[in-house]
Amino acid sequence: MDRRAFLRTTCAGMLLAGGGMAWAQSTPRPLPIIPVTDLTGGIEDRVSLALNLSSHDFGTGVASQTFGINHDYLGPVLRAKQGQTLPFDVTNNIGDTSTIHWHGLHIPGEVDGGPHQEVKNGSVWSPDVPIVQHASMNWFHSHMHGKTAQQTYKGLAGVLLVEDDASLSSDLPKTYGVDDFTLILQDKMFDGSGKMEYELSAAVFEDGFEGNTLVVNGAIAPVAQTVPTGLIRLRILNACNARFLSLSMETGPVTVIASDGGFLSASVEAESILMSPGERYEILVDMNSVETNALNVSLDGEGGGFLANLFGGNKTTTALSLNRSAAKGFDGAIPTQLANLEPPQPADAAVTRSFQLEMDVGADLAALALAWDNYCGDAGAMAINGQPMKMDGIDDEVRKGDTEIWRISVDDQLHPFHIHGCSFRILSQNGGPPPAYAAGWKDMVHVEEGWSEVLVRFDYEATKDAPYMYHCHILEHEDCGMMGQFTVT
Ligand code: C2O
Ligand code: CU
Ligand code: CU
């Protein structure tokens, strides 16, 4: 048994012995509809996001200590329109320094909300964030260096939907909470008393933190929703710290219409879609011909992790059940043409860069887990190109407007790689073409065997005081040093 396999076995054993239990239930709870802050009709005031220390009952009957953004757990769904500038006031009252990063937005480094834009407890950060990109599902979350994993897990995350003229007039379901739903999928660990817990150990550094219970919009799965007859749109974010989720439908294939950075050129049908932490997909569910359907999550695929059997003892669990009512809803058909997407042109690339993600640069993870009190600090236990993340070092300098090829390879395990300030196209994933549903605009790519390559261009500036990040989106890996920073000038 190699060292990692050994750590896995030991850790699974400890969790079972320690009474970690899954809190899946047989009767679904109602799907929580996250309150939407809709700015598409115009912005009159500054947009307040208050980061708070709070408590929340996920459905275990007891309250867990959480962080929330305007709410007791997670943030609102923000809906904005291309061309607007969002005047945020981010107020931090969590009792610790934090940051809020706008994951997926094409914005300059100085408003990106990465680890350099710290918001001290008791203070306000007021960036004006320009929305220049097309319709896309983005999100925001803590990016506090060394504490991203812990703070995001506790609830500092939310969704930011960008619309544009085309998406607002498109023939797609778009009535929020009626035929258009935002789903935030997470896995949580609950102790025997029903309190959410987060504990780092050497094994958790290795695999990232994986919970034993699936949570949808802050409620333990399965959740259920009554929907009208017609097409239903689900906008899905995998906001797990470390888990890859394989999504499928109870009835029929998954119909994917958009990925991280916007609409696909045409809808794609897939038996299942594999979502890494940080990824977003939009899917359509046809409720014309079925009375019930369900979005299922299975953990037995690639990267399912060693805790797969802890989700209520099943490999597959229902995230969301849909029950059709007699009401008439969106009566259009699944569109065939969605956006004009040219095939990527790798010949345009002026530069090729290589990134090697490294799991182990010799630090004693067990000692670090004890020393750092559930965060990674500046542990520097993992690296990219031999260099653990250093707040005061610039790893790459990119020329604004240049098209580049980034080749990312790994020394072990499956990692989700993310780049700030852009959307890119995947040229190859693990040595082969990406699945059709991942062939559009992305800001996340899976890297396992061989390498993955993306074609990317940066159109906004990031100076050395406010550089962009690239990193593994397994948040414990990111915190442990599997991150680098780059300027665009
Ligand atoms: Cu979603 Cu740098 O992160
Ligand atoms: Cu990001
Ligand atoms: Cu990783």
Q: What can you see in these coordinates?
A:
By secondary structure, the protein is mainly beta. It folds into three domains: 31-169, Immunoglobulin-like, CATH 2.60.40.420; 172-328, Cupredoxins -  blue copper proteins (Immunoglobulin-like); 346-488, Immunoglobulin-like (Sandwich), CATH 2.60.40. The protein contains six helices and 34 strands. The chain has helices spanning 3-17, 148-154, 165-169, 202-207, 365-371, 475-479; strands at 29-30, 36-38, 47-56, 64-69, 77-81, 85-93, 101-103, 124-125, 128-130, 136-141, 157-163, 180-190, 196-197, 213-216, 219-220, 223-229, 231-238, 245-249, 254-259, 262-270, 273-275, 280-286, 292-298, 316-328, 351-358, 383-384, 396-398, 403-410, 415-419, 424-428, 444-447, 451-457, 468-472, 483-488. The strands form six sheets. Strands 12, 13, 14, 15, 17, 19, 20 and 22 form an eight-stranded mixed β-sheet that branches. The chain is globular and about 60 Å long. The protein starts with a helix and ends with a strand. The relative contact order is 0.15. Residues 1-21 and 301-310 have low confidence and may be disordered. One copper (II) ion (CU) is lined by residues 101, 103, 418, 420. CU-O-CU linkage (C2O) binds at residues 101, 103, 141, 143, 278, 418, 420, 469, 471, 473.
